[in-house]
Amino acid sequence: MKINEQKTGKDKLRNAIRTALAGSILVSGMANAVLRDHGPLNATWFPDWYRDGNGLALGQCIYADDGGNGPLCLTGPADSNPNGFAGNIGDEAFYSATDVTIPISGGSFLWLGHLEMAYGSASGSPPAVRTATTPATEIVFSRERMRIDIPTTNDGSCSGVYTIRTPFAVHTFELEEGPRALFYTDDIQPIMGDYNAVLAGHTGPFLTWDVGGDGVNPVSSTNPVVSITPPVGPVRKYVGDPNQLHTFVGSTVPAGTGHEEKGFNNYVEITPPTLCDLGAGAGVALFEDTAAISGLMWDLPIADPTNITKATYTRDGTTAGLDVWASASKNQNLVLTAADSGSQHLPSVTMSEETKDGAVTGFYHAHLEFDPNQTLPNQVSVANLSSNPVARDKANVVDEIVVTKSTYDSASKKLCITAHSGDENTPVPLRLEAPGYGAFGAATAGCLAVAGNDVVLEKDLNDFIGDFRLPPEGILIKSDKGGQETSQPSIIRSGIPDGLNVRAVDDVFTGVEGTGVTSLNLVDANPTIADTAPTGSYRIVVVSQPEIGTVTAPASGGSVSYQAVEGMPTSTQSFYYAIQDTFDETVSNVAKVELGITQVIPPPVGVADRQGVFRTSAGSTINVLANDVTGLTNTAIDPNSIQIATAPARGTATVANGAITYTPVGQSGTATNTLDTFTYTVANVSGSRSTPITVQVVLKSAAEAVAFQRVRFNGGWNIRFTSSYAGAAGAVTLAPTASCALIANPGAPTLVGPIGGVVSPTAGANSYVVGGGTPVPSGNNWTVRCTTSSGGFQNRTGTL
């Protein structure tokens, strides 16, 4: 049984209003996962690529590439279904795949996070024939799957509540003991032929190895994990190798207790009931931060999405006008032309980008005027010349619908809309209709025309709107020439002047930072036209949530709060709201709010340091950045940005070369294990600075002594030694890390290479164990040097 899950939800506007009126304001859960867009369909009838909010695009991983450890894609050409159409992907393939396995006493736990391609046919296989006219059976879905075996005990101690943290969400389940106690699958929007629904699925940003092929820097197109050069075509670059388990990044779920140094949930953790032992001890969580990751970068240019949102004309006895609106990224060069190159009536025109409060918006407009007798183009084209490759869109030109009045009387439940077509030269007046409400006709005493050529729609809605708090929404008006307009009626309450009617107006807020909480005044400080709020008390009803972030409204007033998701990309977020009179519960029309979000790179996440220092030392270097992490966007830490925030009391702290040197001052008589403390901050290369990070210095009465117990090579290294600084040190415990290296020819020392890796002392003790098969010593003279992070070292010279 699933008890609780954080996930994103969006409801229809009308259902959302009903929910809000009942006293519940919609909120998004972990609305972090989001993909930006997808590419065009290719010969497989699936999109070329999907792109996340960080700009990383992954293509179809359907190749037989081998990086030396095994296949880099989970499926390849050999998996194509021979009974399907030529070029099919087989029964399934992947854009992104991440698998984590954790051993459990008597079984295992498996977590999968996939962005997957498959077929929705009855057989689950591709059709034998696929053309543009055959029904689509292709589906792209975002999958999270978990399977767990729970050990069977004599007392049932392993039955109970489990908390499972994954890169996608935090889950809580109530489970019974036994094999396959949980087989959980959550597939987001597996709808045939719908390639957009998955954009709001679990996946996003994509999970990748935390470092690329150089072993140091993040994965990128210039630093992939694996590169494969095919006989023909561009180099194929991969974000991971599924044959090697590796630490990874990409989660937007904040890290849980005990793992704060990771910043985000780039791991899987299972916390069992208090008395249950899954293999690590009763009640102890199992943790795994390595995964098998597969994903193929799309490294070709991607056209910037450019769309014509509206193309209309007006015509009267003196002038014909053409208006075209389009959307694209900000600061683009959009050019409008007729789609038919033979038209002489529409030269190439550069569209103007609209601004709000002096800031560009990504919305573009062009207005042209012609002789009313000229033939206007039936279709227009917009080319985005800033895009690489150039992006284009086409749209039919239709007549503008001019709505001169649109009201709804909440007392009589009468709807009155007056409108006319912008084409005033048509010999026969164009017919208007509102689907679901009927055709427009002549003016009536209850619904008077505003303009001389208006036609009128008057409707008594008593028969099908039972609650006056829910006025009609977004009434679509169409003309015979293809024009259409959405009308949102103003609410009229009998006996109250029009100036006091409740009306919400669309808002645009620019420069909203993608961090923390931003207050938005939707009524009093509307960035466009002021809303008309009730004269008495009122509140904002949040009708729908943005894709990323959460909007909440207080019990009264015209302001809301927008809670950003830390590290969210620069984007446009939108939500809908209405104004409710809390006296008679009348609700206004629904209005849209657009938020121009500017990404705020989160600062590095610092981890506290401890180091032992000889109390009369001339200076001890502390590599404070060794355990600090970058944060959500993997923006590199700037080692030259370290600043001392608070100075130590018993010495000095000096910054140099990406580290801090601590020098005791006047401490020769200080008792051993005396504690001194200072703090520092560090920034990333974008300038975002961390909060102060604590460094604890333990002053010692003697220099650190490193003593060997064993240095032996017999087909492999067996090195054991102790440090006098490791272990209990008064009020704290020191655990300096250590590493060893092989040096040849002690008379003229030459580094052969490191032995094993960086090791920590045995928990709570001062002993170290180093192993590994390389480097192999040769000759008769060699030296092993082992050094701790607090500066102590020792050499052991041996012979073969």
Tell me what you see in this structure.
This protein has 800 residues and is mostly beta strands. The protein has 1 helix and 57 strands.
What proportion of the residues form beta strands (DSSP E)? Answer: 35-45%
Derived from helix and strand composition plus strand pairing, the structural class reads mainly beta
| Number of helices in the DSSP assignment | 1
How many beta-strand elements?
Answer: 57
Helix content: under 10%
- The rounded Rg comes to 33 Å
Mean pLDDT, all residues: 86
Instruction: Calculate the terminal CA-CA distance, rounded to whole Å.
Output: 63 Å
Tertiary shape: elongated
Low-pLDDT residue intervals, each spanning 5 or more residues: 1-32, 495-500
Main sheet record:
10 strands, antiparallel
Structural topology:
Layout: E1 2-5, H1 13-21, E2 35-38, E3 49-52, E4 57-59, E5 92-104, E6 107-119, E7 138-150, E8 160-165, E9 170-175, E10 178-188, E11 208-209, E12 226-228, E13 236-238, E14 246-249, E15 268-271, E16 286-288, E17 290-297, E18 307-315, E19 320-327, E20 334-338, E21 349-350, E22 352-356, E23 359-370, E24 379-384, E25 391-396, E26 398-399, E27 401-409, E28 414-421, E29 432-434, E30 438-439, E31 455-460, E32 475-479, E33 484-487, E34 490-492, E35 507-513, E36 517-521, E37 538-544, E38 550-552, E39 559-563, E40 571-581, E41 591-598, E42 609-614, E43 620-622, E44 643-646, E45 651-656, E46 659-664, E47 674-681, E48 693-700, E49 706-713, E50 717-723, E51 727-729, E52 732-734, E53 738-744, E54 750-759, E55 767-772, E56 782-788, E57 793-798
